[in-house]
Every structure is written in C-alpha cells, then in structure tokens.
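User: I'm curious what two different proteins look like when written out as structure tokens. Can you demonstrate?

Assistant: Sure. I'll show them one after the other, since each token string lines up with its own sequence. Here's the first protein:
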Amino acid sequence: MKQYLLIFVCLFIGIGIAKSQENIKQNVSIMFYNVENLFDTKDDPHTNDNDFLPSSKRHWTNDKLEKKLKNIGKVIYSTGIEPPMIIGIAEIENEKVINQLITQTGLMKFHYKIIHKDSPDPRGIDVIMIYRSDLCSLIKYNYINVSNIGNNDLRTRDILYSIIKTNNNDTLHIFFNHWPSRIGGIKSEQKRIYVAKILRTKIDSVIHKNIRAKIIIMGDFNDEPDNISIIKYLNTIDDYKKLQWNQLINLSYEWLKDVSWKGTYKYKGKWSIFDQIIVSKAFFDDSNKKTKIKSAKIHFPSFILIKDTRNTGYAPFKTYNGINYLGGYSDHIPILLLLELN
C-alpha cells in the first residue's frame, strides 16, 4: 500500500512540475539599431568607403573601430538582463565587422549567428541581422531588392526578410529596413514611396498565404510615422481597435507625443522618429496568444546621449561630428520590441 502511495505522490508531483513548466513565460526582445557607419579600415575597390580609411580626413583606424564595436556591444547589453533574441543593424560595411562585434565583445558568449548580403548601396553599407540560436531558429530568409534598375539615383539598401521560429513554436515574419535618405527633398520622398510599395507588395503576399501571419517591420525609414510613405503606402494606422486584417499598426505613432524632447534622430535641434516598429493584426488576435507584445520603445540609456551645445537639451552621442572624432555611439537611437512567449 505504501508503495502505491509513493508512486501516486511521485506522479502527482511530476504532473505539477509539467504544468508549471507549461505556464513558464519567456520574455525576449527584438532590437533595431542604425549604428552610423560601421566600416572596417580596408579599402574596398567596389564601393565608396574612402571616408573611413586610415588615410582619410577622419583617420579611421583599428583602434577607433575597436572602440566603436565595444560601444555598440555596450548599448546592446544595456537592453536587459540578456541581450536581444534578434537584432537588425543598419550601416554595416560587411560581414567582417559584424563578426568582430559578436566574437570580440561581451556578446561572444551568446553565440549569435549572422545573416548578411552585400547591398547595391554606393557606399557599401548594408542591413544585417544577428540572432540567438538558443532562443529561435531561422526557417529561411531573402533580401528584397528595392533599387530601381532604370534609375541610377536609386541604388539603396535591400530589405532583409526572414522567417523565424521561436522557442514557443510560433512563427515570426520579420522585415528590417533602411530606406533612402532625405537628401534631395521631394525627389527623395518619391524614392521612399517606391520602396514602401515594394515592401507592401511583399507583405500582402505573406498575408495572402496566412491572414494571421505575425509580421514585424522595423528599421530606419527616413520618414516619420505620420508621413505618406508609412500611412498610405504601407497602410498603417495608430489604433489597434480599428485595425483590419490587411492593415498594419505603427507602434511608434505613440512616440510622436514625446517628440518635443526625444526621438530616434536629431537634426538641427529637431528630434525625428525615423526608426519605427510596425506589426500586423495577428498580434492582437485573441485566438493566438502564443506571442504577445509587451511594449515597443525607444531605448535611451543615458550614456548614448550628449549635451546639445548648439541647440537645447541632449542629442545622440555620435562617433563623428563632421570629420571631428567624438568617440561616441551613433547618430541614431535604437528601438526595442519586447515580446512575451507563452
């Protein structure tokens, strides 16, 4: 009798442990960071990287490169107890420098894997992704070419599209972007609209296959949440209660309320929200709560800011101000999407 009682107790305890493990929630994050001109010190004859060589006016050396890598690693580490599950990074010259980032800083113990492809950008700067293989797995990826072959003015960064399987067996469709700059005024806006149309076409194809696809779009759009490229051509809104299945919600729209004193990029004393987080309706679908959005925020550790001596308040602590070396982090502030995996 005692033997049967012991077996029963063990089974009861085992079931309790199993149920408690089922209820464990895991918090993870996805980060995007435009790191401002992360170049190596070697001349690439196929790109215009002449501003970032030891012989250039900026005197870009291995010591400065190593300091910048440590700075970027410090920012990534400051996001939480553990660094993000996935990080999209813009303005990377090549895979070599990103490999240095994940093997020669404190990030090395997290065994990040790299997704990279050279883009058509004239300066050779790319959009890359690193991901932690202990927290997720890569199903597939491809780079979406958005350069207009018939328009020599539009040689820009590809959009990185990846499909990720998380540890809770959920699937995420992630798009990392770095859209054309604002140089050129109205003409440059047409370039961003062109890219937005291509991205929207790809999003529509994902939704057509699975209307409940969990889509995450992050990046430096060089436009703000209320600009036409984002609202009209990506079909975004700011209220999830009104969200239709073919629409996207821009979680960054809320940040506009604070733009008087902060944003993700500052130019001539004015903050802008160029770096944004946009998601699909599936995250707000009550039938699938495996992955929940906890928050979307601009990540502002104090050490990446510096007193804005020309204007008011603070500005991003940049690596360079023109050709003057400052030794800072980036001219952009990173953004962070916090998820709960059930």
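Here's a second, unrelated protein for contrast:
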Amino acid sequence: MKNENVRQASVVLNLTKKIIGVKFIDFKEDYDLIDVASAKNVGSICFHARQAMDGNLFKFIAPQVVCDYGRYALGLTKPDTTIVEGRSFEYCGLSETTAIGKNIVASMKYIDHTSYGIVMGPLEEMESADIVIIADYAETIMRIMQGYAYKYGNPKQLSFFGNQAMCADLISKPHSNNDINISLMCRGARAYGRFEKGELGVSVPIAMFDNLVEGIVKTFTPVANTREKQRVIDSISEDDVLHESIDLTYNYGIGLKEYDKRVVVLRNK
C-alpha cells in the first residue's frame, strides 16, 4: 500500500523506524477474515505501535491491550461517564480541577464508535489503513510539518499534553479531527514503546499521506543542506524520480535573496 510514497518519505527523512498504519476493524466477522497473525504479546497501545515500527504486522483486540485508557481512546471499550467528564484526571493529579480534567479529556477525542479490533504494521505491508504514524527526532518532525505546510498551510488542530501519546495524540485525535497531529510522547510511550527522550510522533489520516509526502519532497531542496542532499543522491539510482528533484546548489535563502532583489528592481521602475 502506497509503497512508493513510503519509500520516498523514508529515504528523504532518513527514518530508522517503519512508517506504520493503523486500521480499525468494526466487527468480529471481518476481524476473523483478516489474514494477519494476532499480536504475540499483550501490552499498551504504545507497546504495540513500537512492535509495528520494528517491522511486525499484526492484529489485536481489547484483551490484548493492558491500558484501560488506551482501549477507551480507540473505542475498544467504553469509559465510565465520570471518566469522560474528567473526574479521573483530577483524582489522579493530572489536572487541578474537574473542569480542567473535562477539558483535557474532551480534547482526547475518545472514539465513539465501537471497534472490535485493530490492525497495525508497516504501512507498505497493509492493504488499507485509517491512520499513518511516524516517530523520530524533532528535526525530522520539523521536516514533516514543513511538508504539511507546503500543501495545507497552518495546522489548526494540534493538541498534545504529554499524556496518552500513541492512543490519543496519534490515533484518536487525527482520526476524529481528520487532520495532522503531533505528540510529545508520554511516560508510557517512552517506557513501554522504548521511545527515547528526544523522540516525538506525528500522524495523519491516510487520505493526507500522499500529499504530505509530496510536500516533504518538494521542500527538500529548499530546506536540506548539501550533506543531506548528497546522502539521498548516494542512496538512490540516477533514474529515481527523487534524483531529478534535488538541486545541490539551491536553498530557500538563495531564493529569498533573489526575490528581495527582484522586488527592489520592480519597485524602482
């Protein structure tokens, strides 16, 4: 699925982990028909996501998710009404008041529909997906956001708190908002997903993925330094479409200076 764009993004961004897909499966009958192995281990959504980023394709259901709040976010189980109202966040010390807790939980966008199960794995191995997730260091997330801005402009629905990173920030929020989101990760993600101190996450609905990759590629020549451009050129063949789009002699600073000079000339006519 979308193999060429997965390859281009992986090469240009120099990713060390797989770009993964997430697919909601609504009914048991459909889940049983999917010819994918069940998850070998139980764990949090963060744990499962890391397994997928390490190259594993699998499916899982609610009993294979140990985190209650991860199940709530993905619609695998339904939270008590007091949880949706933010009572638990205030009770455990994550919000000063219940009103603040309610505001936080409302922004989590816990999925209302009932999901029987989830499929996760490298995007190129999946037949279809609902959400695409990438994890890497801040500079890489910067490049992804530059690609998003190239195609869509200012992101208007970013929402993250350092809690419920993989399940809410990177799955339920982009799914509900139909837009990109970033995650600072959370304690669970760093502990059980083995994401390092400087790693972040970003995700988009599947319908945005192709345009996002196009934006990342289009902004590569203006933004990347010569060393990064040479790395990509050395890793691809001369007839690769990426090869044609890379200019070692150009960057956006040059372009801005050229534009400034042009403005001066035109204004003085």
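A detail about the second structure: Residues 226-267 form one domain.
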